[in-house]
Amino acid sequence: MKLRFFSNFFLIIIFSLSSGLLNAQEVADEDNVLKKFQEKVSLQEKFHFFFITSNRYKENSPYDWEDTVNVYLDTAKNANDSLAINHYKLILSQIYYNLGEFDHSISTAKELHSYEWSLEKRKILLNIMDHSYSELELYDKQLEVRKEKKELGISKNIAFYDIYSNLGLHRKAMTDYILEVKKTIPEEDFYGKAEYHNKVGNYLRLDKAPTPAITSLKKAKGYIEVFLNDITKQKTEKEILEGNLLKGIIEGNIGKSLALLKQYDEAIPRLESSISIIKENGIGKYNFEVIDNILDLADCHLHVENYKEAKEYLSNDINPIKYNNKLKKNRLLASYFDKITDYKNSVFYLMKNVRMQDSLKSNESLLKKQQLSAVVAQELESSKKTIDEQKIDIELSRRQMEEKDERMNLVFISLIFTLLGFAGLVYAYLKSIKSQRLIAEQNHIIEASLVEKDSLLKEIHHRVKNNLQMVSSLLSLQTKNTRSKAAIVALEEGKSRVKAMALIHQKLYQNDDLSVIEMQGYIESLVNSVQSVYKKGGHNINITIDAEGTELDIDRAIPFGLILNELVSNSFKYAFPDGDENGKIYIHLRKNGEHGFFEYTDNGIGLPEDTDERTNSSMGIRLMNRLVNQLQSTLNIDKSPEGVRFWFDFK
Q1: Any bridge partners for residue 636, and if so which?
Q2: Which uninterrupted H or E stretch holds 551?
Q3: Is the pTM of this model over 0.85?
């Protein structure tokens, strides 16, 4: 029973582990860069994907990529597809470079050099050739590539500083680098600043000045930390990988500088950290920095007598390509065997170095001289071109300065005239302000005079109204002392006319505007005044007044008032002898612009037939005709069996 239980339990564990492995495999397949490359449909998609992918060797080694791309290349060759052949060869050239097979990389790239590439793809090709020639120490060829890059506009200038450093002229390399690069780095470019200080520090280290080198390298480390930790700026995966790779290189350079100062215990952890970071962020790529750091780390362990650790690092699968690294590895192995008293092996590695140096010494010296001669000649040519360009720029600048001086003179003259004009404007403005003040003072005086005049006019109209009322009162007294009915009637008519004029002056002094009278209100007041005289016959007559919005000046208002007084009085006295239950009076007054119209009608008994004969003897008719003449018009009378209509036009 127990055996069966354990067997079932074991099967469950096996099944779980298998499921986990399958799931992990599925996730790995999803993240597999090589598989994604194979899934791309078109050639251009494959090409673009390969070169934009930053860590393409994370899951598959460069050898896996080489095999895959060779399959595509064979297919393209069978189809005689020259476009695909060249694109896959360019990918292979990059893979060979990453493998450290620089001869193979440069030979493949040279085959593709004559092909008609787009500028972006030619830039990729030339960068591969540039880096490969540098690793092969063929600096004259490297300069030719850089010259082509400048002519195509890929780079602004031909850089010589790294070549001088490779030839051993580290101080000159640093000076040229500082002069050329420092001014081009933006203030907010922390990655660029880190790269700059790392190169300066490394040139100082190579020039055997470790103390200032460490100062510069620590600045570089500070800047790269800021770059990697800056969350305000979004970074691509490629930028993060490049930042971490640079961080590892900086850490290694600090370790190497500490080793030069014989601070081996501090140098060892720096070098170990550098190797770890570079390997993590440069998976599958051949990196000289790792080789250099491993050799320096082995050297540090030998100095602190950690022979076992030193031997482990030297026995690792490191394959130095550079001649100096090969010599250094042999020297360290000889030193190790000497430390453990294995003199046979120690002599073996020393003799190996001697043979290498003897075979390469003369050739190396001659080659170095040739390379240096080529670099100096190219730099002189470049300097001459630069000087010629600077002369052209200086001449252009001189002309521009002359033109600028001429423009400045014109601007200065224009400024003088502008200032004069401005001074004139200021003078005119000040004069205008003074004039405005005088005008304001005069307006104030005029306004005060007008207010005083209005007050005086109101007072005059008030007094005239009071005087006319006094006249009306005198006429009333006279009426009481008169026995003749004809005289009383005459006095009452005169009293009514005086009241009509007094009412005009009353309305004027009550108005804000002393120049005009609002006729609707005036006519209503006048009719009420006449009604008060003829109480018995005036209360049942329907009176319609249509003069709303009409205003007249005093010269027209007084004649109108007197005419209305006569007409309303006559209607009350004569128009309705048999009763006024159905009596109607209609008064209409309108003024449009310079022309006006007046109409008065009642539905009384009308005028007698001998009206024309009475005209000359009737005081009222004669008065109205004269008043209408004052208005430069003629009184029209329309008779009818029931009522009468008086009307006239006026100006």
Answers
A1: 647
A2: strand 551-553
A3: no
